[in-house]
Amino acid sequence: VLKIGASSVPHAEILEFVKPILAEEGIDLQITEYTDYIIPNTAVESHELDANYFQHQPYLDSFNAENGTHLVAAAAIHYEPMGLFAGKTASLDAIADGATIAVPNDPTNEARALQLLQQEGLIKIKDGAGLNATPNDIVENPKNIKFFEAEAAAVARSLQDVDFAIVNGNYALEAGLKVTDALAVESKDSEAAQTFANIVAVYDGDQEKPEIQALVK
Length: 217
What we know:
- Helices cover about 30% and strands about 25% of the residues.
- By secondary structure, the chain is an alpha/beta fold.
């Protein structure tokens, strides 16, 4: 038996897909879905769960530092790109002067949103800002874009009120948006893609267990 905690979309869906494959190897994958980002980690720390699948490395690092936990990444599995979705304006070619774009208000995701806009040539951010970029780091904004900042989970709900919205991959899925419908997505070569891949996390020392290795594979 291999017990794993996961957030519903897309992590638990991905695990349901691999469950029958693991069953053929004699591993009974038992999936528990969580809606928060704390219990799945504390449950691995206390060995109620063998692993979890919902977070990226920077979140795990900060969780360990704040809680004294001993969790490590067994492997990076997938990446959920942020997408730029059409709201009141249908295409980036039609972006008007003074257009409003909804972005997440937490530091990491807002920086990713700004980097995506730079990737698409809509703004320029000062060199070196990277994943710490804020609107104060914008050095060129030829379209005079305005930003509507909202909690990451709520950005998709603002689509009807703004020209565009930049939505995290998991929240886009929950809102019924397809990443394939996005006007632009983070490049797989972006700093964000390298940093924020979603991981399978385990208690330190368990990463070499055969059943964990089978799950990763």
